[in-house]
């Protein structure tokens, strides 16, 4: 164990950094879209149950593994399994997953930065043109925005845990809360906002089926940044003076409150723009919502607050989502950084250079896979659909491997690292954990039904995505 491992400087710093990871595009856009599609309050209810009963124990397990081993995910599996080769496979998976998810998240963050820049420099009318997004993603400007995003992530990460990640979270997260609350208040003053509010909050249980339950759990799991090695890595920087259970609850609560507020922002905005909206048409994808539908709504505000006012609202919105995306991107890039530093002995700058170049090249390949380069655009085909490189990375790493990583972690903690070691870690600085109801629940769930649920999601996703066979709704 290295005595000089970096640590977060304060409890608040750690919580803001971890919440910064958890609060991302998934909360601000993915969650409202899912809530709109799947019965509003009914979806919220199921989502909240999964956060508490399934995701919270997994988050505690990830944080414990990291804090106990004081290592990156690969090193953690190696150390706590006492060098078992089989568990190293799980370690490698948890290293490759964030590496590849960071690639696709980088591409979306680049688009966000581009839209922020364009909205802030007076080009909102152009952003609202229905053909703009297709032209934008294939324009050469994207490469300039790419350099800006890569420079910002590097600038934060080169500062290390305390002076880089923690310090940036302490600036960006409070700014994010203020922008979110400000936008919610503004949107609720618009005409017809209350139609959106009631659509969002009044439960429609008739929309709930097995497929919706599956989506709620996947959304909750992704939203808390689980299965990506992030919480293991951040746990390894957490002080032993803090309680894992208390911190995990706080992170999950913050993440869920932000998702809830994002719904209070997006749905009333949509209904104020078009009170007769058929919600099926807006729920196709989060990407089309942010980059095609919302710019139209912002532009329509010019009737009441003028073009400059409308551009200001659009800029604040894109800044909000951009901040959420950057803090998440920083956290996910820190996983391979910590592995290169911990396992290969690289310095931080060298690790960042290697990752920026290699991940940058794959990101560029993704950028070229939207029609510019033929073989990247029709990269492979499965279940009767042709997929671009970008689609494949999302399908494999985000949709498929995440629940598998969660499953392996639960099995690892319960049956290889062993429950008594996990308990010992949870009890550090937490006198109330031993013998508590929470402790008994976490113990039982992680070793029984949580891995079963994650296995079902994994099998269902593989069947559906790659073979076109649907077991559930
Ligand atoms: N919790 C993040 C979100 O909801 O967007 C998930 C995430 C994705 C974290 C990608 C980090 C990341 F790079």
Which sequence of strands runs across the widest sheet?
A: 1-2
In oligomeric terms, what are we looking at?
single chain
The number of distinct helices, counting runs of at least 4 residues, comes to 21
What is the CATH third-level topology name? Hydantoin permease
Alpha carbon gap, first and last residue: 48 Å
Order of H and E elements: HHHHHHHHHHHHHHHHHHEEHHH
- The proportion of strand residues reads under 5%
Q: Rounded to an integer, what's the Rg over CA atoms?
A: 22 Å
Bound molecules: 4-fluoro-L-phenylalanine
Q: Overall mean pLDDT score?
A: 94
Q: Give the fraction of residues assigned to helices.
A: over 70%
Residue ranges: pLDDT <50 for 5 or more in a row? Answer: none
Helix-strand makeup class: mainly alpha
**Annotated CATH architecture:** Orthogonal Bundle
CATH class: Mainly Alpha
Q: Mind describing the biggest β-sheet?
A: 2 strands, antiparallel
The strand count comes to 2
Structural shape: globular
Task: Report on the architecture of this protein.
The radius of gyration is 22 Å and the shape is globular. The protein starts with 10 loop residues before the first helix and ends in a 6-residue tail after the last helix. With 473 residues, the chain is mainly α. The protein has one domain: Hydantoin permease (Orthogonal Bundle). Strand 1 and strand 2 form a beta hairpin. 78% of the residues lie in helices and 1% in strands. The protein is built from 21 helices and 2 strands. Helix 3 runs antiparallel to helix 13, helix 5 packs across helix 8 and helix 5 packs antiparallel against helix 16. Bound molecules: 4-fluoro-L-phenylalanine. The site of 4-fluoro-L-phenylalanine has 16 residues, from helix 1, helix 2, helix 5, helix 11 and helix 16.
């Amino acid at each position: 164990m290295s005595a000089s491992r970096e640590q977060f400087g304060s409890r608040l710093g750690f919580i803001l950094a971890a919440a910064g990871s958890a609060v991302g595009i998934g909360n601000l856009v993915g969650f409202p879209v899912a809530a709109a599609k799947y019965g509003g309050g009914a979806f919220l209810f199921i989502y909240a149950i999964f956060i508490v009963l399934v995701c919270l124990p997994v988050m505690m397990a990830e944080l414990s593994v990291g804090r106990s081993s004081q290592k990156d995910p690969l090193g953690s599996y190696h150390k706590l399994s006492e060098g078992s080769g089989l568990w190293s496979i799980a370690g490698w998976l948890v290293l490759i997953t964030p590496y590849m998810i960071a690639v696709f998240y980088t591409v979306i963050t680049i688009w966000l930065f581009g839209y922020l820049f364009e909205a802030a420099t007076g080009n909102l009318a152009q952003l609202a043109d229905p053909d703009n997004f297709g032209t934008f993603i294939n324009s050469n400007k994207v490469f300039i925005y790419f350099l800006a995003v890569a420079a910002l992530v590097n600038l934060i990460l080169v500062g290390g845990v305390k002076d880089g990640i923690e310090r940036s979270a302490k600036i960006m997260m409070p700014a994010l809360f203020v922008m979110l609350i400000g936008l919610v208040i503004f949107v609720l003053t618009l005409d017809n906002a209350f139609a959106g509010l009631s659509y969002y909050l009044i439960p429609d249980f008739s929309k709930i089926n097995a497929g919706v339950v599956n989506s709620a759990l996947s959304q909750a799991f992704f939203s808390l940044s689980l299965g990506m090695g992030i919480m293991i890595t951040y746990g390894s920087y957490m002080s032993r003076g803090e309680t894992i259970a208390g911190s995990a609850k706080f992170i999950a609560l913050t993440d869920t409150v932000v998702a809830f507020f994002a719904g209070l922002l997006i749905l009333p905005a949509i209904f104020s723009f078009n009170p007769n909206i058929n919600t099926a048409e807006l729920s196709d994808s989060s990407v089309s919502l942010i980059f095609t539908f919302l710019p139209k709504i912002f532009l329509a505000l010019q009737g009441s607050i003028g073009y400059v006012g409308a551009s200001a609202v659009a800029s604040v919105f894109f800044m909000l989502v951009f901040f959420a995306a950057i803090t998440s991107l920083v956290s996910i890039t820190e996983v391979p950084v910590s592995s290169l530093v911990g396992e290969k002995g690289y310095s931080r700058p060298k690790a960042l250079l290697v990752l920026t170049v290699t991940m940058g090249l794959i990101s560029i390949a993704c950028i070229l896979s939207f029609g510019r380069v033929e073989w990247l655009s029709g990269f492979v085909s499965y279940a009767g659909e042709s997929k671009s490189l970008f689609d494949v990375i999302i399908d494999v790493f985000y949709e498929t491997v995440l629940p598998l990583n969660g499953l392996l972690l639960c099995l690892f903690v319960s049956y290889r690292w062993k429950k008594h070691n996990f308990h010992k870690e949870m009890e550090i600085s937490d006198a109330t954990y031993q013998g508590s109801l929470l402790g008994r629940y976490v113990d039982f769930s992680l070793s029984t039904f949580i891995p079963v649920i994650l296995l079902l999601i994994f099998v269902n996703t593989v069947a559906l995505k790659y073979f076109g066979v649907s077991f559930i709704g």
